[in-house]
Design brief:
This protein is an all-beta fold. The protein contains no helices and eleven strands.
Length: about 120
């Protein structure tokens, strides 16, 4: 299993970014996917998750109405559209899945929001 994130960067408050996570090594369309983030000195927290077919999506309260998770099972890719970004969204963002009871993480992509 391999998860490769991209799309992070430096953006001003109020701006937008779209993160991508390219997955390989497993049958992507059968598994739920999630985005987590970890800010310096803080624990890793769940940001958003999406079921295998994309029918159910859940979000952390802190990002509801601003972030949107989606997936393209034909491209084995999950996305996180982030709008109205705030400085407190600054963190390393990780893609995650659980396959056959094993946890898998990507290497992360840094998002920095300046005020």
């Amino acid at each position: 299993v391999q998860l490769v994130e991209s799309g992070g960067g430096l953006v001003q408050a109020g701006g937008s970014l779209r993160l991508s996570c390219a997955a390989s090594g497993f049958t992507f369309s059968r598994y739920a996917m999630s985005w987590y983030r970890q800010a310096p000195g803080k624990e890793r927290e769940l940001v958003a998750q999406i079921t295998s077919a994309g029918g159910i999506r859940n979000y952390a309260d802190s990002v509801k109405g601003r972030f949107s998770i989606s997936r393209d099972n034909a491209k084995n890719t999950v996305y996180l559209q982030m709008n109205s970004l705030k400085p407190e969204d600054t963190a390393m963002y990780y893609c995650h899945t659980t396959v056959l009871s094993q946890y898998y993480w990507g290497q992360g992509t840094q998002v920095t929001v300046s005020s």
